Amino acid sequence: MGEVYKQIGQQAIRLEIREGNELIGICQAIIVPARRGKHLAVSYGPVLKEDVIDNPSVLEEISKSLKEIAKEHQCSFIRLSPFISANNPLELAGSRKSPLHLLAEHIWYIPLQNPNPFTGEESDSNEKVTEEEILKGMRKNHRNLIRRATKEGVEIIKSDDPIRDLPKFIELHEETRKRHKFTPYTNDFFRAQVELFSKRDECTLYIAKYNGETIASSVHMHTFGETSYHHGASTAKYHKIPASYLLQWTAIQDAIERGDRVYNFWGIAPKDQKKHPFAGVTTFKTGFGGQMLNIQHCTDIPVNSKYYATIAFEYYRKWRRGF
Q: What pLDDT does 316 receive?
C-alpha cells in the first residue's frame, strides 16, 4: 500500500522497531497533505509483537520517532489507527482520542476457518467453513436475491486484465458516488492499487453483466489468507436486478476455494448510528452473515498548535454529519 500512495504523490515512510537484533515491530506512515492540516497517517499500525504491546519504553520510542519524522515534514499531528481490539487499546505516549476515524473501526467479516482467525475462538464447525454453512448463516432475503440474480441471467466475470477493465469500474463508481453522496478515493488511487496488486496476483476485479451490459463491479484484495472487499460500484439503471449480491457470493466462494481464513467486508456502521458514513452499506454487508470486530478508535499525537484548529474543524464536521 505504501507503493500505491507513492504513485499518487504521498510519501511513504517505513520504520522497523528493533530490540537488539530482534525485529519486534513495524510501522508505515504516509505524509498526507490534507487541506485541513498536513499530517502523518499510520493506517492499522504500528504492528508489534504481543509481548511488547504494553511496554512503555517501546511505545515511548515509537511516539518519539514518529514525532521527529512529523516535525521534519512540517506535519501538525500524527493520526494512528492500530488494528487491535478495542478491548485492549494500544496507547502511544502523548496520544489522545481523535475526533474522526481514519479507516474502518467496526469490521464485519466471515471467518472461513476454525478457530476464528481474528479472535481465536473455537466453534462447532469443521476446520474449514463450507459454502452450505455460510448460506445457512445468511439472511433469507440475501439467499433469495443470490438465487434470483442467477435466474435473471446475471453473469459474474473475473477480469483477466484488471487494468484494461478498470475504466468501466471507475465509470460505475462515479455514478455510485453521485447517487450516495460520499467522498471517494481518487481514480489515480484505484489505478495504482489495481495495477500494483494485480501484478502480484493479489487483486481481482469482478464484473457483473446483465443483457450484455456491465451493471456492477468490485475490487477485492486477497493476500496472507484474507480476502477483503475494498471497493464496489453499480448502476441505478438496473436497480431491481440484485447483481451485487451474486457478485459478493462469487467472491466468497473464490475465497473458500483459495483456502483463505477470512472474508473481510470491512467497515459497517455501529449499532444505532443511522447517520454514520457506513450506514448505507451495513444491511447489505451484514446480511451475508458473519461477525463484528471492533478495533481501537483512532488516536492523534499533536505535534504543533495547528493541530487544534484541525480538530475544531473536524468536530464541527462530525456534528454536521450527525454522528
A: 85
Q: Which domain holds residue 195?
A: 106-294
Quote the DSSP letter at residue 128: B
175-185 in b/e form (b: 16+ CB < 10 A) is ebeeeeeeebe
What are the distances in angstroms from CA 233 to CA 1, 216, 227? 21, 6, 18
Is the pTM higher than 0.90? The answer reads yes
Answer yes or no: do 201 and 167 share one domain: yes
Phi, psi of 316 (to 5 degrees): -65, -45
Query: Quick check: 214 pLDDT over 90?
Result: yes
How far apart are alpha carbons 267 and 133 in whole angstroms? 23
Both 99 and 162 in one domain: the answer is no
Co-location of 91 and 120 in the same domain: no
Shared domain for 244 and 309, answered yes or no, is no
What pLDDT does residue 323 have?
63
Whether the per-residue pLDDT at 123 is higher than 80: the answer is no
Query: pLDDT tens for residues 275-321?
Result: 887 888 999 999 999 999 999 999 999 999 999 999 998 888 887 77
Asked if residue 133 and residue 76 are part of one domain, the reply reads: no
HSE (CB half, 13 Å, CA atoms) of 237?
11
**DSSP codes, 56-125:** HHHHHHHHHHHHHHHHHTT-SEEEEE--SBTTS----TT-EE-SS-SS-SEEEEEE-BSS-TTT----SS
Task: Provide the domain count of the chain.
Answer: 2
